[in-house]
Amino acid sequence: MNFLTAKNRLNKSKTHWIGLFLGFMLFFALPLLVQSNHYILQVFTHALLLAALALAWDLLGASGSISLGHAAFFGAGAYASALLGLDLGLSPWATIPLAGLIATGLGLIMGLICLRLRGAYFALATLAFVEIPWVITDNWDSLTRGSLGLVGISGLPSIRIHGFHVDFGSSIVVSYYLIFAYFMILLGLVAFVHQSNIGLALQAIREEEIAAEAVGIHVNGYRLLSLLMSAFFTGVCGACYAHLVRYIEPGLVYGLHFSAVPMIFAICGGRLTILGPAVAAMVLYPMDQFVFHPLLPAGHEFLYGAVLILAMLFMPNGFWGRLRNAS
Amino acid sequence: MILLRLKSLNKTFNHFCALTDIDFSVGEGEIVGLVGPNGAGKTTLFNLISGRYKPSSGNILFKDIDITHLKPHAICRLGISRTFQSSRPFPGMSVLQNVMVGHVFGKRSSLHSRPENKQAAKELLDIVGIAHKADAPAGRLTLSEQRRLDLARALATRPKLLLLDEVAAGFSPVLVKQAVELINRVRKRGVTLLIIDHFLNLSLKVSDRLLALDHGEKIAEGPPHVVMRNPEVLRAYLGLRHESERD
Amino acid sequence: MWSMIFVSSLSLGSFYTLVALGFALIFGVTRNFNLAHGELVVLAGYVSYWLWKMWAFPFILTFPAAVLVSLVICLGLERLFSRLHEPLALNSIVLSFGVAVVIQNSMLFLFSGNYRLIRIPVLSRGFHLPGLYISYTQITLLGSSLIILFLLYMLMYRTYLGKAMRATIQDKDAAAMAGINVSAMGTLAFCIGALLIGLAGPLYGCIHYLYPSSGQEATLVAVTITIFAGVGRLSGIILAGWILGLAESFTVVFFGVSWREMVSAVLLLALLYFRPHGILGHGER
């Protein structure tokens, strides 16, 4: 691997925590700062969702595997949650975790097929793997309504405890806070994984697999664990997306976009860091939406490809990783 | 008491016989040197014992448990640990972390590493003599330091049997002397050792017994001075048999 | 009916071989996976479509332009790839994935997202043989693929240059020791690859709708055939192309056209599952 000097432990310096706290406050207060401007909040809600997606992708990335097929979990999660809501009338509180579990099941299938592969061949296999749930969703008309897609998906869920009532789907501000909460939970979990012995095992596996198994690390067990965690949270992201946008179709949720974007954010931000993928998402997606989209309505996403190329050539540790190595 | 027993072990790679019918056993507390020219099958034997390769036929018993079909991590947890011919540190971790990985996963793993792991890891670094490098990234160590780290990490898994692959190859006489002391220190911890020693600069000094291989076959075994006078062994090492020139 | 399936899979399979050739050659010589391959094929198709539709170029004259465009891009790609470090195969996948995103979005910008097809009136006609109907499109695909394959075979097996290239494919380091300029061979592989892409693109536009994201399918076809065939065997490549063509035709007949897209993916997964160490296949170092 080419990240010889990158450390993946949280740098516990004081400035780090202050920065983290300021970032948290900034995003917490964002709806006030932009005075609930609908468009800006919508962009940042999506940015947070994509940041969560990048974090979920990087749970697998930490084991040294690069997936080009996470849209499989994203799409499966989106479809599962939407269909459970539409056909069985379940509340999103139930369907979103169920969607995560269904995505985990898909992750298990992917694991059985792909985990014997390494590096480039693993990546190629994941690229091919997306086609399977995609084509099945496209063709299973009686269940999924086929390529027409699903409309009328319920909005994000609401909380009703006695007199207290918050409907997260009612306005963009509350949707924003729900996604923000999910992002923070996932971030905490990723940080925990990195600090724990799971993180240590994953680092050992990606740096020197043969030595890792020789010192007692169950290599494929940990690789599967990281894939399943990644699939679960990617599925939850897909489910949130379905309830946020309230319209999905196979080409939208299984398409290249949702495979490419988390990988690009993770690699540009630094896939061996905890915050890097999220920071990249929070910077690049708003940049895309506020700057490039108005300039180039068709083709604005070339930005993502371009930053990926630049990162591969000049910053193999990602900009967050580079920032930390420099300090 | 016999710790490790190899029963008519065979290994072929695409019709090439790397090991043929190896029968051998190692007793508890012994130090056995594994000698032979390049390509004799010494490292292949290590890879079979540690579970990286599966034998084509034959059995490996450790403490009377059949470990032939176990995965490397399971074999490690039973108590067999190894070092590598070209050492394989985790380059992005600190030296101390490398050893802690062995400590945490070598026996059973919990979600959190406890402070006593760190203490034990530091002691091991002290034993192999690189305690002053504890916080350096493992990727920046010199070759001889990397070998010591490999050894410390292997010891951290608390093995009963330790397989050392060319620990002293290329060492100066001073370093070899240190290595001899080190091995004696390891032995005092109750560890049985199997040592690959191509250049014979270590095993003659520390081994109780030698096993000599050539072209994947056992050609001699016994006390060092006997094995080293065995005509087959001499022939293999001096290259009098023309086949042995091929690698 | 069987003979018609057979003819269509033969022509489709031969064409798939043509689509995969450039990818396989570049991978063989440089060990770079070019995931932007399909996008380049589609781009070549768009160039041809545009010249043919807008400036009423005769179809056959659009080929040089398509070749020229893909040559320029491939040489740029080669510069990018040459700056990568180990692990080369994985890094080239990630890098070329980024290139694919850039090309897709450029095509969206230049040609819009509409579906385009190059309709050549002559090609849509055909003739009857006893018991089967053959269209000129099928003849064209089969004929041009086989001719190009034959020319490439002559280059690789009958010239000194081809020998040097094959040596590089088999063992780069040994080839370099024998005095072969390995990096020049890499450049040459990209040039020939670009030529093959430029020839495949316009034909692709005749049988397949062009839209900016349609290249993914061509990439998957190229990857599948290359992994199926193994490195550096032309005979293996045409066999792999035919098998893929057959598998797709049968799927279309028995399950319907909408399942076709899954065929190459399933085939690739099956190949990787049973040969997990990939093309080079030695596994242990």
Detail the topology: elements first, then pairings.
The complex is a heterotrimer of chains A (327), B (247) and C (285).
Chain A: H1 14-33, H2 38-61, H3 71-88, H4 92-114, H5 119-129, H6 131-139, H7 141-144, E1 150-151, E2 158-161, E3 164-167, H8 172-195, H9 197-207, H10 209-214, H11 219-245, E4 247-248, H12 250-253, H13 256-269, H14 276-295, H15 302-314, H16 318-326
Antiparallel strand pairs in A: 1-4, 2-3
Helix pairs in contact in A: 2-8, 2-11, 2-13, 2-14, 3-4, 3-6, 3-11, 3-13, 4-11, 8-9, 9-11, 13-14, 13-15, 13-16, 14-16
Chain B: E1 2-13, E2 16-27, E3 31-35, H1 42-49, E4 57-62, E5 65-66, H2 72-78, E6 80-82, H3 95-106, H4 115-128, H5 143-156, E7 161-165, H6 173-188, E8 192-196, H7 203-206, E9 209-214, E10 217-222, H8 224-227, H9 231-238
Parallel strand pairs in B: 3-8, 3-9, 6-7, 7-8
Antiparallel strand pairs in B: 1-2, 1-4, 4-5, 9-10
Helix pairs in contact in B: 3-4, 3-5, 4-5
Chain C: H1 2-30, H2 37-54, H3 62-82, H4 88-111, H5 121-124, E1 126-129, E2 132-135, H6 136-158, H7 160-170, H8 172-177, H9 182-207, H10 215-229, H11 234-255, H12 260-274
Antiparallel strand pairs in C: 1-2
Task: Summarize this structure briefly.
By secondary structure, chain A is mainly α. Chain A has helices at residues 14-33, 38-61, 71-88, 92-114, 119-129, 131-139, 141-144, 172-195, 197-207, 209-214, 219-245, 250-253, 256-269, 276-295, 302-314, 318-326, and strands at 150-151, 158-161, 164-167, 247-248.
The CATH architecture of chain B can be given as 3-Layer(aba) Sandwich
**Whole-number radius of gyration of chain A?**
19 Å
Order of helix and strand elements from N to C terminus of chain B: EEEHEEHEHHHEHEHEEHH
> Which secondary-structure class do the elements of chain A indicate?
mainly alpha
Q: How many β-strand runs of chain A?
A: 4
- Any low-confidence stretches of chain B, pLDDT <50, length ≥5? 243-247
Strands side by side in the biggest sheet of chain A: 1-4
Q: What is the overall number of helices of chain A?
A: 16
DSSP helix fraction of chain B: 25-40%
Gross morphology of chain B is: globular
Q: Architecture of chain A in CATH?
A: Orthogonal Bundle
Number of domains of chain A: 1
